[in-house]
Each structure stands twice: as C-alpha cells, then as structure tokens.
Amino acid sequence: MQVSSSAIVDPAVGNKNSLALRLWHWSSAAVISGLLITILFLFVILKMKTVGPEFQAVLQKQGVTMSKEQVRGLTRIISHRIWDWHIYLGVALSVLLLGRIGLEFFQRGQQRFAVKLGTARQYFRQQGVDLQDARHSLVVKYSYLAFYLMLVVMVLTGLVLIYADDVEFLHQLEHTVKEVHNVTMYLIMAFTGLHVLGVVWAESTKNKGIVSDMINGGE
C-alpha cells in the first residue's frame, strides 16, 4: 500500500497544527528574533570599538573631557544591559525548548513531529529518490530535526556560559563552549533565513496556506 503525496505533507488529525504547537512556534520565533537582535546591536549597531570614540567626540563638543578608560566604562554599561536581555531571552528559549520536548509526548497522531518524519521517510522509500515531492518532504523534515538539535546545543552552551564564572569546571570549558555557541548561532541564523525564503517560495507556488495553517491550525 502506498502513501499519497498529500498524506505526507501534513495529514490531518483534527487541525494540522495544534494550538499549543502554534503558540510554541510563534513564541520561539519572537524569542529567537530577540536573541538575534541583541547580537546585531552588540556587534554591528553598537559596536563598542566605534561607539566609544563617537561618545568621546560628542562629550568633547559639550565641553566634557573623558579618557578612553572612562568612555569604555560608559559603553560597558550599555553592553551589559544588552547582554542581560540576551540572557533573559536565552532562559526563555530554554523553557520553550523544554516545553517543545514535552509537547511531543502529548500531540495527537500526525501532529507529532516524530510521526511526520516517519511518514515522510516511508513515502520516500516507496516512491524513490527521483520523485521530487517525496525528496522535498524528507529534506524539509530533516532540516527541522537539525533545527531542533541546534536549539538544544544553543540552549545548553548558553546555560554553561551563564554559570561559567561561578563553576570552576565550566570556567575551564568557557572558551570552547563560547565558540560552539557562536557557530550554532550562525547556523540558526542561516536556517531562519532559509526557512523564511522557503515559506515565501512555497506560498507563491503550489503549497499555499502554510502561514495561515500555522495561525489557524489548518484542517
């Protein structure tokens, strides 16, 4: 018995996407966007090496003279505030990730990611590598799996960095963990960009309704 191509896209069990999954999706999108915005501010918009001299120049016009060390202390206040927000959002992402793992055990039937992945693999084996729909569906499902794994790495390394100064063992790993955290951040940025482009492409071709399904649940 073969599985139809429509069945592997998102077979309906009630709604395609449960209310809990939709809330998780948009909450995670907001939190991840916030995390990326804090990085954008720290390393691009408010890059301390360029902002410091600008502060110094503005203060000098007002008749206030400050040394480089004093200006650096001023810019650190801004940097620390942004990092605080980055940490708060990181903790929120940790909670959301735990919620997503728990949600997988309570979803019904084809609403579960594991079931969707299994269905896509079965359809791919039956239809073969040459069928575009089967290949595309499987690639998309595995890209989501990779994303979830990246979230796990991002959250775990982020938590290590939060407590690295307080725990000697974690402090010794801080440099390596920071490198892994940064690389994972870039991978998530790349996935996010590709995901948005993929949704726009799908909506403009034959898979219309993806965004509305993630808003109203689909049928």
UniProtKB/TrEMBL annotation:
Which InterPro entries has this protein been placed in?
Cyt_b561_bac/Ni-Hgenase, Di-haem_cyt_TM, Hydrogenase_cytochrome, Ni-dep_Hydgase_cyt-B
Specify the superkingdom.
Bacteria
- Membrane-spanning segments: 23-46, 85-103, 145-164, 184-202
Zinc-finger keyword on record? no
The annotated topology with respect to the bilayer is: Multi-pass membrane protein
Keyword hit for Repeat: no
According to the entry, every stretch annotated as the Cytochrome b561 bacterial/Ni-hydrogenase domain falls at 19-217
Q: Which Pfam families match?
A: Ni_hydr_CYTB (PF01292)
Predominant cellular place of this UniProt entry's protein: membrane
Descriptive protein name: Cytochrome b561 bacterial/Ni-hydrogenase domain-containing protein
UniProt similarity note: Belongs to the HupC/HyaC/HydC family.
Gene3D superfamilies linked to this entry = Transmembrane di-heme cytochromes, Chain C
